[in-house]
């Protein structure tokens, strides 16, 4: 039966009534491209570039970076590739930099875009390599920053991207302040991509790395759904895209709920793509909206999930 569902859904992502939802892959580098292509990814929604930088004694050279980026861009001549700039921190330190300050809460520390404040030359080098790799390829290349908390940070990043020749820089929505003030942020961002892993961690104040609080790391929580809906509405009002690239996008039922909240693309680990494609193809946009409203009308993650399932027959 599973095979029948899968074979029924091929081609670009869309709801049963034809509302398009591009389905993209999360990748860590060129070695993940085969799986992305085999599972029908329409592009890349999250290229985690930190794998180029971690576990090495010297920074990757400009040409090494360019080559890794171009290999990914060329795999999707018709598609979109969203590159996230380096997302490292005290828990993922860079061996070629002086050891960072000991942090009691690395998730709340100098990570993501914040690290570029101390080392702007690493950002400039990465953006330069991205701009050169993007020149002359037909993929639509977009760049976004992780861990943006304020409008000033988003402006600073967008300016640096423009200077490098990269327009329309995006902002990841992974910090509650960014979601709550999404209407301010979208004025300076080309698009949003919601990182539901971190957004959940920060919304529920439950460290992703601490197993004792793993039960709280649940993107079905209505508080997380509300933050996502706020960001999606702000982007939609501005006529800009708002994707999801956290693990939430890989849950076929939650994927329908996200689409019902106005999310415009979904990016996930490649093996989940066929399941999400199948789930979307079996439900209309109206059903997805009803499922989203139902999930947000209750008071717990568990009840939200049950409410959404009830609106989306055939996914139990
Ligand atoms: C996220 O936080 O949801 C995300 C996509 O980024 P990462 O998992 O790499 O932190
Ligand atoms: Mg994240």
Automatic annotation (TrEMBL):
- Give the record's keywords alphabetically: Cytoplasm, Kinase, Magnesium, Metal-binding, Phosphotransferase system, Pyruvate, Sugar transport, Transferase, Transport
Q: Which parts form a coiled-coil structure per UniProt?
A: none
Gene of origin? ptsI
Query: Record-annotated residues binding phosphoenolpyruvate?
Result: 48, 84, 197-198, 208
User: What catalytic activity is recorded?
Assistant: L-histidyl-[protein] + phosphoenolpyruvate = N(pros)-phospho-L-histidyl-[protein] + pyruvate
Q: Any idea what this protein is called? A: Phosphoenolpyruvate-protein phosphotransferase
Q: Which residues of the full protein are shown?
A: 260 to 575 of 579
- Active site: which residues? 245 (proton donor)
**Any Gene Ontology biological process:** phosphoenolpyruvate-dependent sugar phosphotransferase system
């Amino acid at each position: 039966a599973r095979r029948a569902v899968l074979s029924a859904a091929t081609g670009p992502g869309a709801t049963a009534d034809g509302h398009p939802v591009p389905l993209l892959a999360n990748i860590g580098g060129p070695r993940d491209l085969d799986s992305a292509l085999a599972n029908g990814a329409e592009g890349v929604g999250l290229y985690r570039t930190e794998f180029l930088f971690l576990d090495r004694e010297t920074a990757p050279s400009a040409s090494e970076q360019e080559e890794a980026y171009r290999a990914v861009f060329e795999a999707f001549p018709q598609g979109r590739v969203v590159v996230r700039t380096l997302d490292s921190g005290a828990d993922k330190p860079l061996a070629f930099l002086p050891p960072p300050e000991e942090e009691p809460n690395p998730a709340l520390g100098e990570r993501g875009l914040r690290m570029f404040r101390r080392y702007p030359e690493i950002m400039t080098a990465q953006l330069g390599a991205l701009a050169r790799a993007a020149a002359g390829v037909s993929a639509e290349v977009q760049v976004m920053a992780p861990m943006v908390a304020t409008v000033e940070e988003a402006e600073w990043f967008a300016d640096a991207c423009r200077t490098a020749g990269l327009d329309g820089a995006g902002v990841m929505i992974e910090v509650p302040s960014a979601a709550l003030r999404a209407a301010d942020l979208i004025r300076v961002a080309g698009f949003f991509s919601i990182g539901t892993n971190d957004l959940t961690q920060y919304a529920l104040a439950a460290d992703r790395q601490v197993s004792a609080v793993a039960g709280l790391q649940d993107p079905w929580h209505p508080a997380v759904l509300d933050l996502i809906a706020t960001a999606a509405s702000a982007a939609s009002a501005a006529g800009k895209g708002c994707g999801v690239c956290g693990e939430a996008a890989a849950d076929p039922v939650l994927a329908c709920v996200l689409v019902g909240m106005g999310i415009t693309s979904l990016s996930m680990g490649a093996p989940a793509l066929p399941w999400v494609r199948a789930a979307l193809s079996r439900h209309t946009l109206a059903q997805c909206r009803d499922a989203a409203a139902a999930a947000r009308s209750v008071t717990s993650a568990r009840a939200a999930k049950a409410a959404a399932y009830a609106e989306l027959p055939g996914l139990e």
